């Protein structure tokens, strides 16, 4: 491969024996979602010069593929990772799987075939077996989430501080009963956000209402409709994803609640969808590509044999827009 040749993304990169379409099918992404992924990843900003290909960085996600295709977080994260790893010849190999058992089998297969240079462990759970498994297999790994072991490199974002920021803002606005619609509670960052939200509300003697979704827009809508009907005094809601927050807007319309007049809404993370919604969504914002670049540097260090360490990503910020502040512009 000549020095001027360029690779755009792992979904289009042709690994030995694969075509772009075959690679897309292999990771289990349906055509509609794959199209959204390709449009997000195959843009001029992501073209990185590569002199040669080395084994990829493995990323396995147990996710509904339609949700993955719609949410921008992993698109931006992978873009940031590859800004660092692609110039060194390591693309990101994404696999979307139906279960944790399939994920474990994949790690064993990758180890046996030496298919990847390292793996990224995301959506860390309580008593997660994957860090220990990677150590047992001798599979280089980076934990993307709260520190769970001293044996693996870790890249961590302080979700607790960001949740306190959102809850304290709403409390400061005078809200006395607030809803949190979180992700699956077995995922560490979801349960941590939920606990921090409840604690922050309790300290301020504010009523915390808790609901759970699966990061999809439909789950955000269903959880919000149910909560608002059961607890009509709720006047604000925080969501663990931008898609669930968009579902919250749908729910407000369904039950006849104006946003922000009778329901303030905050999303997590910020996105183009959040910015272009009606009304624009207030959101917890972090530079996801910058987090990806930090992960990329960490995984290259792991491949190079550097010792394990915990690396902290920059703190998130709250971007206030119309959905939580009626004095903000509508657009």
Task: Please outline the helices and strands.
Layout: E1 6-7, H1 20-26, H2 31-41, E2 48-49, E3 57-62, H3 65-70, H4 73-85, E4 92-97, H5 100-113, E5 118-121, H6 130-137, E6 141-144, E7 153-156, H7 159-172, E8 177-182, H8 188-203, E9 207-212, H9 217-230, E10 236-239, H10 242-255, E11 264-268, H11 272-276, E12 282-285, H12 288-303, E13 310-312, E14 317-319
Your description of this structure?
- By secondary structure, this protein is an alpha/beta fold.
- The protein folds into 2 domains: 6-157 and 287-315, Rossmann fold (3-Layer(aba) Sandwich); 159-285, Response regulator (Rossmann fold, 3-Layer(aba) Sandwich).
- 42% of the residues lie in helices and 18% in strands.
- It has 12 helices and 14 strands.
- The protein has helices at residues 20-26, 31-41, 65-70, 73-85, 100-113, 130-137, 159-172, 188-203, 217-230, 242-255, 272-276, 288-303; strands at 6-7, 48-49, 57-62, 92-97, 118-121, 141-144, 153-156, 177-182, 207-212, 236-239, 264-268, 282-285, 310-312, 317-319.
- Strands 4-3-5-6-7-13 form a 6-stranded parallel sheet, sandwiched between helices.
- Strand 8, helix 8 (188-203) and strand 9 (207-212) form a beta-alpha-beta unit.
- Helix 7 packs parallel to helix 8 and helix 9 (217-230) packs across helix 10 (242-255).
- The longest helix is centred in the middle third of the chain and has 16 residues, at 188-203.
């Amino acid at each position: 491969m000549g020095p001027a040749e360029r690779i755009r993304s792992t979904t289009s990169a042709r690994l030995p024996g694969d075509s772009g379409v075959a690679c897309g099918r292999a990771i289990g992404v349906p055509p509609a979602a794959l199209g959204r992924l390709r449009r997000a990843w195959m843009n001029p900003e992501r073209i990185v010069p590569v002199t040669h290909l080395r084994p990829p960085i493995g990323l396995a996600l147990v996710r509904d593929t339609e949700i993955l295709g719609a949410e921008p977080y992993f698109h931006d994260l992978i873009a940031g990772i590859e800004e660092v790893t692609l110039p060194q010849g390591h693309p990101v190999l994404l696999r979307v799987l139906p279960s944790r058992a399939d994920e474990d089998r994949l790690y064993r297969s990758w180890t046996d075939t030496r298919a990847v240079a390292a793996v990224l462990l995301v959506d860390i759970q309580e008593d997660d077996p994957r860090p220990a498994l990677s150590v047992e297999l001798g599979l280089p790994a980076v934990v993307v989430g709260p520190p769970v072991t001293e044996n693996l490199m870790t890249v961590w974002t302080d979700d607790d501080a960001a949740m306190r920021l959102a809850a304290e803002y709403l409390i400061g606005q005078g809200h006395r009963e607030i809803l949190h619609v979180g992700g699956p509670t077995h995922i560490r960052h979801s349960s941590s956000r939920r606990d921090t939200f409840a604690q922050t509300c309790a300290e301020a003697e504010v009523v915390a209402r808790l609901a759970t979704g699966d990061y999809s827009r439909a789950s955000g809508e269903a959880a919000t409709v149910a909560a608002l009907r059961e607890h009509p005094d709720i006047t604000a809601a925080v969501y663990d994803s931008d898609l669930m927050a968009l579902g919250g807007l749908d729910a407000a319309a369904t039950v006849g609640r104006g946003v922000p007049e009778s329901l303030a809404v905050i999303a997590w993370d910020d996105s183009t969808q959040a910015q272009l919604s009606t009304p624009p969504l207030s959101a917890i914002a972090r530079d996801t590509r910058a987090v990806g670049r930090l992960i990329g540097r960490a995984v290259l260090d792991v491949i190079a044999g550097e010792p394990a360490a915990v690396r902290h990503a920059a703190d998130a910020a709250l971007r206030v827009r119309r959905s939580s502040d009626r004095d903000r512009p509508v657009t």
